[in-house]
Amino acid sequence: MKKALKKVAALLLVGCMAVSATAFAESPDPSLSEGKTVIVGLQGDTASFNPTAAPDDWGYYVAENLFSRLVKLNWKGEALPDLAESWDVSEDGLTVTFHLHDNAVWSDGEAVTAEDVKWTFDKIIEEQAYLVSYLGSVDSIEATDDTTVVFHMSTPDAALFTNIGFLGSFILPEHVYEGQDWTTCDAAVSSPVTSGPFTLEDYQQGVSVTLAANPNYYDGAPAYDKLIYQIIPDSNTAVQAYNNGELDILGIMAPASAIEDLKNDPNSTVVTNSNFGRYYYGYNVKSEKLSDVKVREALTLAVNREEIVDKAFGASGKLAEGYYTPAVEWAYNADAKIPDYDKEKAESLLQEAGLEKDSDGNYLELSIATFNMEPFTNIAQIMQANLAEIGVKLDINTMEAAAFMEIGSDESAYDLYAMGGQVGPDPSMFYHRIGTDGMMNFSHYSNEKVDEMFTEAASLTDQDERGAIYKQIQEICAEDFIFVPLSEDISINVYKNYLTGLPYDTATDTAAQTELSKVMFTAEPQY
């Protein structure tokens, strides 16, 4: 199953990376164009109108407006009511009861019921869809009446709300999908039946997706009549369209060369936030050449991370200092730091490990596997130059995303790798990077104590207690040199000043942010 999940993860990689999330205001500004239409840039087309069968890198942001989930997340990763207006958790944490809105209807007029929720989650498990890897603590799901859904848990799971409010958790209509292939039926391909704040009005493949306000939305019709995603693959073209007034929200990560001009634009707002993802490189601990932790420490010291962030990321990067994302403050260990660049000490450690130079002046010859695109090609090239200075030859093997994911399960295919992805909003997601059965554990690292700590942390409900365990895990990461974080995942969100009240807008009161009930996202994923 681990290999199958890694194939699913290949679809997720784009969505996992540097997401520039943009949500906009509930109240329209009088200066908006006639008809209250908001136009957003989107760098790629939707692959499906079934956002639960598999992660869809571009379609996800359209799905946010078409479909509902039991709960949804704000930009901080906090769970907010969605289809479920409230919920109760039993004292032992083994029963979670969701109370649904009693006025929710599908776009075809049928009522949204608890049976739709049960069917969706049962289908996820039956089809081994992406979310199944996060539902291990769910024993069964019961619809006790039309508006009540009960999750019976085998163990308490503090991450449940985060996981069901994120990727692959949109509720689907049982009466439409039952008896059909949920990936090829009309609802999945061209005619979605939805329950969110918008409905699909028009879809022009490769051009645009037009959504119309849903007057029957259970939380009240959205303030805007239409939401148009304009598909613009080239980021420079998107910036030009934005500057020409053709986009209200850029929605695409601007090239570094354009960011300063956008910041100086009096008609625009630019908001920079840290997301829950990171760029990093890792060591295949099953490689005989890297089995000695002293060698991995040496290589860590020899890589100039500041140079990588400066040259490979520019304004869209931020030097990572610890082994987990600081975006989740309560779980971040600021004391478990990545060591500073020190090539003299690095070479000394190689010698202490008993390595000697060959006739070409190299202690080691290693290979690194990564994606054939920026910033990863730049990362690998800088690492290659850095390691050469201490007598380590690094061969670079770049490939398409699907090929990269395929070799991830092969312990002999590479020595190092460079990639990126989400480790939040809940720190339980970190398991998939370093846990024994983690679907993105390209280091092939296995530590029984670490696995047990992840299990224990997930079973706790006290945040401080959970945070203490995750901080200990980061200390082990610092000791074992499994991987090396390079840059935090930074989103640079650009929108016109007449759009206010965005959830990540620092000028918006925190209480007001959490009250936003129709949050609409756009993003520019990166590998």
Outline the secondary-structure elements.
Blueprint: H1 2-16, E1 37-42, H2 59-66, E2 71-73, E3 79-81, E4 84-89, E5 95-100, H3 114-127, E6 138-145, E7 148-153, H4 160-164, H5 174-177, H6 186-189, E8 198-204, E9 208-213, E10 226-231, H7 235-243, H8 256-263, E11 268-283, H9 293-302, H10 305-313, H11 343-352, E12 364-371, H12 376-388, E13 392-399, H13 401-407, E14 416-422, H14 431-434, H15 448-459, H16 463-480, E15 483-496, H17 510-515
Parallel strand pairs: 1-10, 12-13, 12-14
Antiparallel strand pairs: 2-3, 4-5, 5-7, 6-7, 8-9, 9-10, 11-14, 11-15
Helix pairs in contact: 1-13, 9-11, 10-12, 15-16
Describe the structure in your own words:
The structure is a single chain. This protein is α+β, with helices and mostly antiparallel strands and 527 residues long. It contains 17 helices and 15 strands. The chain has helices spanning 2-16, 59-66, 114-127, 160-164, 174-177, 186-189, 235-243, 256-263, 293-302, 305-313, 343-352, 376-388, 401-407, 431-434, 448-459, 463-480, 510-515, and strands spanning 37-42, 71-73, 79-81, 84-89, 95-100, 138-145, 148-153, 198-204, 208-213, 226-231, 268-283, 364-371, 392-399, 416-422, 483-496. The protein is globular, with a radius of gyration of 23 Å.
